[in-house]
Amino acid sequence: MKDLKINSDFKPSFFNEAKWIVILTKRNVLAIVVILLLSAEVIFPQQTTSSLQVKVTDQNDDLIPAVVARLKKDEKIIKEITSENAQETVFAKLADGKYLLEVEASGFKPQSLEVEIKTGKNELTFILEIAEAVENVKVASDAQESATENAFSNFLTDEQIAALPDDPAEMKRVLKQMAGGGDVVIRVDGFSGAELPAKSQIASIRIVRSSYDAENHELGFVYVDVLTKVGSRRFSGSLFFNFSDEALNTRNPFADRRFPEQNRYTFFNLSGPIVENKTDFSLLFSDTRNFQAQNIVAFLPDGAFNNSVNSQADGTSLNLRINHNLTKSLPIKLNYRFSNGNSKNLGVGGFNLPDKAFDTKNRSHEFRFSTVGTFAKRFLDEFRLQYKNETSITIPLNSETAITVLDSFSRGGAGNFQQNSRQSFWLANNLLFGTRQHALKIGGTVFIENEKQVSAFNQNGTFIFSTLQDFVLGRPSIFSQSQGTRNAEVLQYQIGTFVQDDFRIGKSFIASFGVRYERQNNLRDKDNFSPRIGFSWTPFKDGKTTFRGGIGLFYNWLETRNLLTIRSQDRTQSGETIIFNPSYPNPFLGGASQILSPSFTQKADDLKNPYIVHTSFGVQRRISANTSFRAEYIYQKGVHQFRSRDINAPLEGIRPNPNFGKISQVESSAFFVRNSLNVGFNGSLTKTISYTLDYTLAKIISDSDGIFGLPSENYNLRNDISAANNDQRHRLNAYLSWQIRKDLRLSGIYTVNSSLPYTITTGRDDNRDTTFNDRPFGLKRNGERGAWHNQLDLNLSYIFSFINRKGGKSNKGYSIVTTSAESGFDFTDPEKRFSLRFFANAENILNQTNLNNFVGVQTSPFFRQATFADQSRKITFGLRFNF
After folding, report:
1. Mean pLDDT confidence for 284-312
2. How far is CA 152 from CA 582, 618, 732, 864, in A?
3. Can you tell me the distance from the alpha carbon of 485 to that of 5, in angstroms, rounded to the nearest whole number?
4. Of 151, 176, 196, 347, which is the most exposed, with the fewest CB atoms less than 10 Å away?
5. What is the pLDDT of residue 689?
6. What HEC string does 639-654 produce?
7. Which of 88-97, 182-191, 356-365 has the lowest mean pLDDT?
8. Cα separation, 725 vs 727, whole angstroms
């Protein structure tokens, strides 16, 4: 590697310069703090994230229909629900605290019980005795009210949570599939992007669709909200291990044999009380060791080349969470997470030969603090804070000049040295209170991020050849090389404030009105107001049918890392040299047709935050006691989307400004339009079989390939209007969980996805804009389609528990029995102590060949062929011990 200089003073820092203090004291922070402290969100007491599910049976354990459940607080009726099936008696959006629950049913003796609602999902079973005579039992129907509040959202059952994978990464994949795939946002205790906890620490999982709440910055078609448990009565824990080896898997379709592979994952969790009923802790440790085969599918001058190189990815993570009750109404959650990862031999595979390899190292520290407390009986305060410190380095293993023959092979150095340090601070606060029919919310967020980068991209140069014949003859099309080591830094803060009013009109209709304002310091865009309007309507008293819809604006940020990329390549840095038709192997010996002046990247002066107009209308129908149906139409239009354009591209072969070469300008000139119809069923076939079924029909049109994607014609952007890169017309996800017996469970996910588009290109740079995306005359961008994808994943688990028989008739201390407490520790049963779970997980059990990465370059020997296949059949065995 030539002239590589690593900054010896490169150290992580957050408030290490005087400009931080100036910015934090002079730029809106005082106003932000005032807004956050005075922000008030008005809400009914029941509109928190807690819920109570009441199951009512007779003395024979049979469900009782037509149950009246009434929840009281301070002698006042908070909510009253009549359900046709006891499993559907759910009190949603409750404030934590003590209530009086009254249950009545025709022909049974009424009962009442004092219950304490804790954060998350609470469950209770009532057994009613048959009454000789019950006179004038009044059934007040609040089915409309409950259906209106919970339209297009549902909690996962304990059985569904128990069936989720133990591996957090695999659990995230399954949750996204259960939510329908696509754009799914997963939040843990209100934090987006947080690591999923152990299943034993999950209090509830709720899937929410089509949220127009002004509190949300992210636009997700579906939100998956995971709440963790608060409070431990005893010490408990688990030890989990899974293992996969190439001996258990099938050969990749593009490999001539099975190459060595091995994946190991170890997870340990321990939790318990520190001070009884006051403070508890949870400690999680995970270790990942992956030894993965990377298949090379290339074509060299002497013929096809197929081989495999192993990459290695190792990582450890330590997570400590402490829950503490400052008062009875003010619990706090403290969380610290440390992670460390090392990867070797990345960048190899596909067209990339072994000498393209590079290594990475990364380390992060993350601290989170959150609390949800009530005061003055009617106010609820939500406060969240997060701080992260991350460092990473990428080191190429080869310093030779890179050679790329388009979609045939690539060799030489990776040329991607990079060293990053990033610190971020995120704060959010909402205050909530209710008045009459209104539920108002006012709050705000502050996000501050500082990132530094030292890089040496393409410092050793790259030759690009259009064809294998050109390579054999030594006729490269282009040579490019960046000069020197580049240093860049970005300080960015983002603020967002909002107000939301959910207005109830009777029991059957809720209208929501909200507006959100956002601002970034590195953009001149100041008028980012996002109005949101939504409604939920249950027209019939039985509460079986609910309509929901709305319209709103959602802005996107200019990500700090993208801005850092722009600054590392702007005109203040050492430029990039580009030579057309250079000599080979020394491009500077002469004979070149043209040497461009230095090229660079910049952002447009009028760069704006992109926004999306999102509107939807849907219906949800309870077909039977155990089956629900929903359908929803969604329309989206993305405006001012980020894209790049060469504003100095040749006109009739001559660049307008001869003092510069390529000027890649990031601007807000792209768009997309999305239409989709989503249909879903969920419910249970029997008491032991539950399912979800989700199908999406969609079409997405756009005119760009992302923030740094360049058009085929820089002065005619309409020429690229066609199917978007992610235009997947059909997507089907089916999930089923079957409790075969108390100790044996089978679950599966079946996915079917239609093909993604790809573009036919000539493989030459005929317009001499240095970008090889020229298309044959008359062909559209993304005008071809690849192959469909279908895959069946199965998980089979067996569990048995050791139960302490204290106070029992047996003289034995423990005995082995089967149990369905698969999800971890059952705190409701103090006698349960130990359980052992064995499982086998099969990905793509039918071993379907799902082709990918279709080649559209006409000069490639792989033209119109796939060069990659998704995961072939992979078997993983695991063991989990709970204590």
Report:
1. 94
2. 61, 9, 19, 42
3. 6
4. 176
5. 92
6. EEEEEEEECCCCECCE
7. 88-97
8. 6
